[in-house]
């Protein structure tokens, strides 16, 4: 945007902007619900319990169930997929029975962990016994299956063309997918609302920049309003 365009925008000073923001009334109960939603969805059990006592905001779910969910998530993040599968079946066996893609991704992660541990022969047998039949049943999985089995063709899987499967990020991806499925089975939101609201804030400021010169929130952590730069 050039100087001429910038000069056409209305300038709002910090004091005026604060008055406008203060005029917007937000119920404390709504803010507390937003915080509790984040704590529950992300699995901060102790924090949710403390916040419930301090604010009187009910979590809306059994906090004990959150502990089970987080133990399952942590098991995948550690690479212990078998433990995660056992735990999720104890919690609700219908989750893996109904979600074929998730079930495939968990078995895929098991194969990756066998490769990571250097158990090549066992990994090959596992792929033939558990993953190959899934690929035949669900052709949509074939591409992922071929990429994963390709790990077995290289002596050093960490430097092969599909080495991204060995990254910890792959574990996190599988853990997040399983976590979302558990939340859905418990009729809970898969994602907390707070990050979505922050994205909306960034989007709104980007659009306001085209029309106004105003105090922005540049640091989402502090939430501090920054006085617009002076005209030159």
UniProtKB/TrEMBL annotation:
- Species this chain originates from: Elliptochloris bilobata
Q: Start and end of every CTLH domain?
A: 65-122
List the lineage, top down: Eukaryota, Viridiplantae, Chlorophyta, core chlorophytes, Trebouxiophyceae
**By its UniProt entry, which PROSITE patterns does this protein fall under?**
CTLH, LISH
Q: Per its record, how is this protein called by name? A: CTLH domain-containing protein
Q: Which domain of life is it from?
A: Eukaryota
What the entry lists under InterPro entries is as follows: CRA_dom, CTLH/CRA, CTLH_C, LisH, Ubq-SigPath_Reg
């Amino acid at each position: 945007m050039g100087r001429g365009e910038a000069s056409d925008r209305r300038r709002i000073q910090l004091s005026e902007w604060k008055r406008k923001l203060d005029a917007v009334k937000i119920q404390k109960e709504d803010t507390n619900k937003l915080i509790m939603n984040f704590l529950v969805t992300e699995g901060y059990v102790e924090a949710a319990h403390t916040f419930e006592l301090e604010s009187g905001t009910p979590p809306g779910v059994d906090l004990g169930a959150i502990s089970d969910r987080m133990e399952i998530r942590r098991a995948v993040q550690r690479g212990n997929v078998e433990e995660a599968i056992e735990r999720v079946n104890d919690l609700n066996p219908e989750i893996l029975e109904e979600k074929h893609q998730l079930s495939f991704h968990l078995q895929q992660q098991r194969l990756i962990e066998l490769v990571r541990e250097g158990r090549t022969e066992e990994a090959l047998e596992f792929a033939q016994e558990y993953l190959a039949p899934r690929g035949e049943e669900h052709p949509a999985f074939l591409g992922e299956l071929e990429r994963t089995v390709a790990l077995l063709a290289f002596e050093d899987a960490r430097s092969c063309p599909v080495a991204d499967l060995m990254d910890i990020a792959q574990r996190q991806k599988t853990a997040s997918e399983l976590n979302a499925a558990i939340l859905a089975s418990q009729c809970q939101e898969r994602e907390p609302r707070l990050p979505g609201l922050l994205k909306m804030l960034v989007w709104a400021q980007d659009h306001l920049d085209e029309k106004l010169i105003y105090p922005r929130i540049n640091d989402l952590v502090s939430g501090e309003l920054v006085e617009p730069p002076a005209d030159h």
